[in-house]
Write a structure and sequence with these properties.
Layout lengths: L17 H4 L4 E5 L17 E6 L6 E6 L11 H20 L13 H11 L9 H7 L4 H12 L2 H4 L4 H14 L9 H15 L2 H4 L4 H13 L9 H6 L3 H5 L5 H17 L7 H16 L6 H14 L7 H16 L7 H24 L15 H23 L3 H20 L7 H12 L2 H12 L1
Antiparallel strand pairs: 1-2, 2-3
Helix pairs in contact: 2-7, 5-7, 5-8, 5-10, 7-13, 8-10, 8-16, 10-14, 10-16, 13-14, 14-16, 15-18, 18-19, 18-20, 18-21
Length: 460
């Protein structure tokens, strides 16, 4: 069902409570609007209603839906999501500011919101279906999920965050992701945030991390791919993109994600009430976490992690060690798709490969050298995933399981093995012996730091 709105269309056709009329303000809307590019109104069924609001601060007091109907029009989904977000912002702001609950308030499509709330009760489950959750929240999965987690951990109250600023920040974060990207979009960010939550609940971390660490971890997960252009760093460099020049060809995407996140933090004044040194520390450590997702530095981080585990010298009582573990947790969350159940993992594999191949098509069109794994004629989803799992995912999650030997770690490794076997069964060149099945991806990837890590850089 698609909606469109117009201001004004209808008068308020039911009595409005006196406490609302005393601070008069009203918005009426109808599905017969052409404001958002809807077709002939006669092709649309009516959906009518009104919002009454406090004219002094424009916080919603009263929302009344009079009817539902299906629409035959074609309205840009981004505009509809933007309106939903604005409505929810208005609706929630009065309650979040502590105003008395004078009237029953209703959110549009409340039945869907109810289902989303039921899903959030199991947000710590590794089987959490982020695709379903995104549909139930009308494309607002990142906003709903991150807001819920910040509240669940008690971070909003503890850090005395203005909840309206929090909501505005999350809306801006979600809108800064490019939803035309098959993979690097807001749903991926929501998925990484949910995975990060699962890791934060692991016993070693839950017993050691401070609230400040948890806040940083969730914010980093939600913003780690902010404003991702849908192409990788080598593409930006060889096309002389301004971002490559700005960051001197070094961690180009990760630096941009970090700086974009800092820009939104400052635009919304989310931490303006904190001492300047605290807000600067948040920005700096947020950058350290996001920069850790640069896959070109994968071997450095993995080597350090392995050394710590071999020497058994990780002390989570030290802030530097806790921060390093957060970096490793974010790296795992960023590339955990092969460790999800097959139904979810397969969808992510198809989406990331679609994004690779789209970049390859652009390179072909402009007669550029085709990046590894981006040539749809030379690669398949199966071959891409087998190489990625073998040289990037398995080494990382094997070390994470050494650090946190829990049921979740064993579950992830189990899914990883089954998913790799499933892709191998689809790839004729990998259907031979186990050694032959792995030697072909090895040749295709040349070295872990070459083609396989190139793909990882796009996933991160």
């Amino acid at each position: 069902m698609e909606l469109c709105y117009q201001l004004p269309v209808l008068p308020l056709d039911r009595p409005v409570p006196k406490h609302v009329l005393s601070r008069r303000g009203a918005i009426s809307f109808s599905s017969s609007s052409s404001l958002f590019g809807a077709p002939d109104p006669r092709q649309l069924s009516q959906r009518r209603g009104a919002i009454s609001y406090d004219s002094s601060d424009q916080t919603a007091l009263y929302i009344r839906m009079l009817a539902r109907a299906e629409s035959a029009g074609s309205i840009p989904a981004r505009r509809i999501r933007r309106l939903f977000s604005f409505q929810r912002h208005l609706l929630s702001s009065r309650l979040l500011r502590g105003a008395p609950h004078l009237n029953p308030l209703h959110i549009l499509d409340d039945d869907y919101c109810g289902q989303a709330k039921c899903m959030l009760e199991k947000v710590g489950s590794w089987n959490f279906d982020i695709f379903l959750f995104d549909r139930l929240t009308n494309g607002n999965s990142l906003i709903f999920l991150t807001f819920h987690l910040l509240n669940q951990y008690g971070l909003i109250e503890l850090f005395q965050l203005d909840m309206v600023k929090v909501r505005r920040f999350l809306v801006l974060v979600q809108e800064d992701y490019h939803n035309q990207n098959p993979y690097h979009n807001a749903v991926h960010a929501a998925d990484v945030t949910q995975a990060m939550h699962c890791y934060l609940r692991e016993p070693k971390l839950a017993q050691s991390l401070t609230s400040f660490d948890i806040l940083l971890g969730l914010l980093a997960a939600a913003t780690h791919d902010l404003d991702h252009p849908g192409v990788n760093q080598p593409f930006l460099i060889k096309t002389n993109h301004y971002l490559a020049a700005l960051y001197r060809n070094t961690s180009v995407l990760e630096n941009h994600h970090w700086r974009s996140a800092v820009g939104l933090l400052r635009e919304t004044d989310l931490f303006s009430h904190l001492p300047a040194e605290d807000s600067m520390s948040i920005e700096r450590q947020l950058g350290s976490l996001i920069l850790a997702t640069d896959i070109s530095r994968q071997n450095d981080y993995l080597s350090r992690f392995r050394t710590h585990l071999d020497e058994n010298d990780l002390c989570l009582g030290h802030s530097t060690h806790r921060h390093f573990v957060l970096q490793m947790a974010l790296k795992c969350a960023d590339i955990c798709n092969p460790c999800r159940p097959w139904e979810l993992s397969k969808q992510w594999s198809e989406k990331v490969t679609e994004e690779f191949f789209h970049q390859g098509d652009i390179e072909k069109k402009h007669k550029l050298e085709i990046s590894p794994l981006c040539d749809s004629e030379a690669n398949t989803i199966a071959s891409v995933q087998i190489g990625f799992m073998t040289y990037v995912v398995e080494p990382l999650f094997a070390e994470w399981a050494r650090f946190s030997d829990t049921r979740l770690s064993q579950t992830m490794l189990g899914h990883l093995g089954l998913n790799k076997a499933s892709w191998s069964a689809m790839e004729p060149e990998a259907s031979g012996s186990s050694e032959e099945g792995e030697s072909e991806p090895a040749r295709a990837t040349e070295e872990p730091s070459s083609r396989a890590l190139s793909q990882g850089s796009q996933e991160s």
